[in-house]
Amino acid sequence: MRLTQMSNSLPLCFCFFVTFWTGLDVETRLGFGWTPLMYAVSVANCNLARLLLDRGASANFSKDCWTVLMASCTASSSEDKIGHCVELLLSRSADPNMVDR
């Protein structure tokens, strides 16, 4: 694994650890006020996003007018991975018209 890949996955690994092994709620706010789902979709990790959604994470969470769907659409990844995450979020009732609540 390259150093850039490792540094990009560190926040995601931290989210996974905090959420699942410490028993914290999947809606826990981490750095920048983001939930673990926001971090997962921001790197197009569809498998972790699915796991978080299955455990009750909100597909409609937003922070500072930035939604989970927006984070997914602007992920640093391939179009295929981004597309899978966007499809997953939409299938879990993510509102594409939502800006902030």
Automatic annotation (TrEMBL):
Residues 1-23 form the signal peptide. The keyword Kinase does not apply. ANK repeats lie at residues 32-64. Keywords: ANK repeat, Membrane, Signal, Transmembrane, Transmembrane helix. The chain crosses the membrane at residues 36-53. One of its GO terms (cellular component) is pi-body. Pfam families: Ank_2 (PF12796). It comes from the Eukaryota. PANTHER family: ANKYRIN REPEAT, SAM AND BASIC LEUCINE ZIPPER DOMAIN-CONTAINING PROTEIN 1 (PTHR24157:SF3). This is Uncharacterized protein. It comes from Poecilia mexicana.
